[in-house]
Write a structure and sequence with these properties.
Helix content of chain B: 10-25%
Number of domains of chain B: 2
Shape of chain A: rod-shaped
Order of helices and strands of chain A: HE
Order of helices and strands of chain B: HEEEEEEEEEEEE
CATH class of the largest domain in chain B: Mainly Beta
Number of strands of chain B: 12
Helix content of chain A: 40-55%
CATH architecture of the largest domain in chain B: Sandwich
Largest sheet of chain A: none
Largest sheet of chain B: 6 strands, antiparallel
Oligomer: heterodimer
Structural class of chain A: alpha+beta
Number of helices of chain A: 1
Radius of gyration of chain B: 28 Å
Number of helices of chain B: 1
Number of strands of chain A: 1
Structural class of chain B: alpha+beta
Chain lengths: 71, 194
């Protein structure tokens, strides 16, 4: 009977230790995360489209000038 | 068997007490910085004093977070200083003044950051949003840094609601040899308590 009582008390104490440990870790982790309040990042986007330039038949940029001679 | 159980019990009690003391001390020391609420509940005309500490919080918002310059030919330049297109609008929604830095990924394949092809500057939207509008802002277009080396864009950026918004202008000049197509850059603004 006494041995059974000891077992019950042991289990209860083990539970107490476990609960205390979980509670302490939770509280400490909660407070330590509050340090993130001092730095913050936001992001934006810059977009544009570059138009293709006209190329002549030699691969050079610009308009092709055709010289026409008449008699 | 009975002797072992008693030793185990004693050990568990000591561990439980140790953890409880450690947890209590940690919690009390953290909470002591948050102020307290006091009063005199047993007098006939009770008066009370409530002390509330507003936590310091850094929080900025890009209310305008995208700039589209549309179609541009090589060598052509454009910027947002005339509000066309609209610049980035940055608001301080926190509870402290902040310093803000800027960095960005490359916009052009032919001109890596930093380059005069891709620039930034800052100006106030709501007057008085910085303590000194000359020294706390970047008042002329400056080459955009690359994504690993941020530089200051706004200093001592204030948080009260009536004076808490600035513009970040962007200027671009398309390099002569840039390939045609869609170009995009991600701009990162980082706020740190001033």
């Amino acid at each position: 009977m006494k041995e059974r009582g000891n077992k019950t008390v042991t289990i209860l104490l083990a539970l107490l230790v476990l609960v205390s440990l979980v509670g302490t870790i939770t509280i400490i982790s909660e407070f330590s995360s509050s340090g993130d309040n001092f730095i913050q990042e936001v992001g934006g986007k810059v977009n544009l489209h570059v138009n293709p330039l006209p190329y002549d038949q030699n691969g050079k940029v610009g308009l092709t000038v055709v010289r026409v001679e008449t008699n | 068997m009975g002797e072992i159980s008693e030793k185990l019990l004693i050990a568990l009690v000591i561990v439980a007490i140790g953890i409880s003391i450690f947890g209590t001390v940690s919690t009390v020391s953290k909470l002591s910085g948050l102020g307290s609420i006091t009063g005199q509940p047993f007098t006939s005309a009770p008066t009370g004093t409530a002390n509330v500490t507003v936590p310091e919080r850094t929080y900025i918002t890009l209310t305008m977070s995208s700039i589209d310059f549309g179609d541009l030919d090589p060598t052509v330049n454009n910027d947002t200083t005339d509000d066309s297109p609209a610049p980035f609008a940055l608001r301080n929604d926190g509870t402290v003044n902040v310093n803000v830095t800027i960095k960005a990924t490359d916009l052009f394949s032919d001109a890596a950051n930093p380059s005069s092809a891709y620039q930034f500057k800052s100006r106030v939207d709501e007057s008085g949003s910085v303590i000194n509008s000359t020294s706390d802002l970047v008042t002329s277009l400056t080459n955009m840094p690359n994504s690993t080396s941020a530089v200051s864009v706004v200093k001592r950026f204030k948080f009260p609601a009536a004076n808490d918004q600035v513009f970040i202008d962007i200027g671009v000049t398309v390099p002569a040899d840039e390939t045609a197509g869609v170009k995009s850059s991600t701009v990162t603004l980082t706020a740190i308590k001033a």
